[in-house]
Design a protein that fits this description.
About 50% of the residues lie in helices and about 15% in strands. With about 170 residues, the protein is of the alpha/beta class. The chain has a single domain (about 5-160), classed as P-loop containing nucleotide triphosphate hydrolases (Rossmann fold, 3-Layer(aba) Sandwich). A 5-stranded parallel beta sheet has the order 2-3-1-4-5. The radius of gyration is 15 Å and the shape is globular. It binds adenosine-5'-triphosphate (ATP), (3R,4S,5R)-3,4,5-trihydroxycyclohex-1-ENE-1-carboxylic acid and magnesium ion (MG).
Amino acid sequence: MKKIVLLGYMGCGKSTIAQNLSKITNIPFLDLDKCIEKKANLSINEIFEKYGEIYFRKLEHEMFVELLQSDENTIIGLGGGTPCYANNHELLQSENVISIYLKASIDTLYNRLIHNKSKRPLIANMNEEEMREFIAKHLFDRSFYYNHAQHKLGVDGRTVEETVNDILEILA
Ligand SMILES: Nc1ncnc2c1ncn2[C@@H]1O[C@H](COP(=O)(O)OP(=O)(O)OP(=O)(O)O)[C@@H](O)[C@H]1O
Ligand SMILES: O=C(O)C1=C[C@@H](O)[C@@H](O)[C@H](O)C1
Ligand SMILES: [Mg+2]
């Protein structure tokens, strides 16, 4: 069964794009962060606070493998860090997977995340200057893993509809 896997940095639009793609294609969408929250019965913030990031990464890997093994066609929106831990980046190239990196610039990410950081524990407590520098360095470190995706789509200046259409072209 095919899995359409969307990946990229926090705020690149994985959840938003996946929801819209799901409506058009009628393929169910599963958000990895939400699946982890449901299984743990805790928010991502609570998992980080109570058990730490390493434990979160373990749950994240297990849930990613579980979602890939289901025998349904699904759209999976990864967490921002998912490809960068365990061997998750290798799973992006599995046979039944179509993986798509939603590639956003530092400016796009900063402008989106500055208004929307409270539910993202890695940046929740940063001021504006710290956040810009953090995103720049972090994106650089993570790009190696994101670039294991089979397809890359630039999302700067693109509307949700345009990006969804770009994905439909990849799937055609
Ligand atoms: N053209 C666009 N495409 C996608 N999202 C957009 C766009 N313009 C604005 N946004 C907004 O960017 C924000 C971040 O998007 P979203 O939460 O989908 O990102 P994410 O990649 O799922 O982040 P996270 O990894 O933290 O879950 C949302 O508030 C969304 O509405
Ligand atoms: O970029 C990251 O490492 C994260 C992104 C979010 O989707 C969550 O998975 C969590 O907040 C960690
Ligand atoms: Mg999301």
